[in-house]
User: What shape does this take?
Amino acid sequence: MELLRFITCGSVDDGKSTLIGRLLYESKLLYADHLAALEADSRRVGTRGGELDFALLVDGLAAEREQGITIDVAYRFFATEARRFIVADTPGHEQYTRNMVTGASTADAAVLLLDARKGVLSQTRRHARIVSLLGIRHVALAVNKLDLAGYSRELFDEVSASFAEFAADLEFAEITCVPMAATEGVNVVGRSELTPWYDGPTLLQWLESVTPSTRRDVSSRLSEARRDETSRFLVQWVNRPDATFRGLSGRVLGGTLRRDETVRLGNRTTSVARIVTMDGDLDEAPAGSSVTVVLADDVDASRGDVLGAASDPPSLADSFQARLVWLHENGLLPGRQYLAKIGARTVGFTATKALGINEIGVDNVHFDAPVPFESYRTNRDLGSFVVLDRLSNATVGAGMIDFALSPSNVRWQTLTVDKQARIARNGHRPCVVWLTGLSGAGKSTIADLAEKALHAEGRHTFLLDGDNVRHGLNSDLGFTDADRVENIRRIAEVAALMVDAGLIVLVSFISPFRAERALARELVGENEFCEVFVDTPLAVAEQRDPKGLYRKARRGELANFTGIDSPYEPPVEPEVRLDTTTLSAQAAADAVVARLRALGVC
Assistant: This one.
């Protein structure tokens, strides 16, 4: 039988868990011990005065049962004579939107619940938009709790029309509205006499008959159209058990991969010599199969590469228009470097627009390397990615690719005089000396004294000072978090260019965020970055206050001031830590120069 994956979603307390529990109960899919446990749990922690509380069949966490809400995604399997199902019950609270995205990412259809008395709420709209973004085109709108509104046809029609109007631009292939009372089982499995005015399908009838445009049941027999789709094979591992065998292990993401098929990998064309499994060789492998492919030619391949039919290979690009869902309390900052995991590759990622937690937007995004891709609508696996924080590796967002942006005409130009030639001419190694700390810590004074000493020794140097740069290069930037990120991004790029010129670059910036300081380090070579933490406590820096900025910030005249109403993230393992409560400026500068000597820079 076919398998349908579907999601139940909607605002909190609209009855999603109750609906699934009632669906299992009415379909006679519960064993006697499950029913006994449900009866006991309903008496102990139920919300229906001892009657069967069907939500308890799904809400398994202790916190969920105590609060009567869904927090995590709960998956349940059931089957009827017509079809097998996997249902994902997802949370309704806004702070658990990330969990809802998780459940929707593998679904073929969606059951969107709403309370008939409350109508279309903001969370209903948010979930509907996410369902659309994730490529789900078939939706059942379960207008629930009609028993509490006297099974009013007028209310059902009003709510259904309101949702249809809102969803007109969401590109759903169909929206089927079902009047329901999940606690009573009305129109869940069988048609109810309480809604004689409704002649559409029950929810179960809709689930058994819906034909989603994206089919994920790879075990069912493939249609001829499906068999003719262009093959896509994602390389996850180069399998080399001994010198006699070299295969590419991975998964078929689309179409059917066949033995002797001509395929393309990067700019090389070859053919499939063998399709190997534990049970022997195959003549073909359908979408969803995990196999090892042996190519006819020795083609260089690595994790993340994609084999495609030579007649229509996957495209490569590094810039896209994508739809983003942001999942972290720390919002998406334009220009900040994140990581994106797409297919089996992890690449650098930046975006151009800001997003807050649970916000959804269309943005231009950029990877730091070309990746094989297809639009999300064509191929979910090659068209979706998750966004990771570079420092914590936490998942902070998700994206769906619409299309690649126009390819750039900018190319790297080969130059005769290179970095090594400049190093030889200068007689010393280049390095970025990055001084970070609070305003008033003494960064600029120490950097100036250190450069003076290096210059006296004949070293080639340049000092980038935070205030000086804001008079020119960064004069267009303010002091919001987004502007601070862009401020440091630009300076990091300039410092990297100066290292390429063979210079010792002293950078004196507050640079409050670890992520941007980490980016600056990554832009230069190994042993070409020296982080100097000018460690001055806030109280001491505020007491010094050479520019009067702390006083202005305390009076509310200066917004987004680091240490007062904007955070500072101190370095974790700097190369140099200068305690300016015990060191003079000259002693601190001498310590910086001494460290550069120890590193072999000068």
Residues 59-71, 214-228 have pLDDT under 50 and may be disordered. The first strand starts at residue 3 and ends at 10. The CA atoms of residues 252 and 562 lie 50 Å apart. The two ends are 73 Å apart (CA to CA).
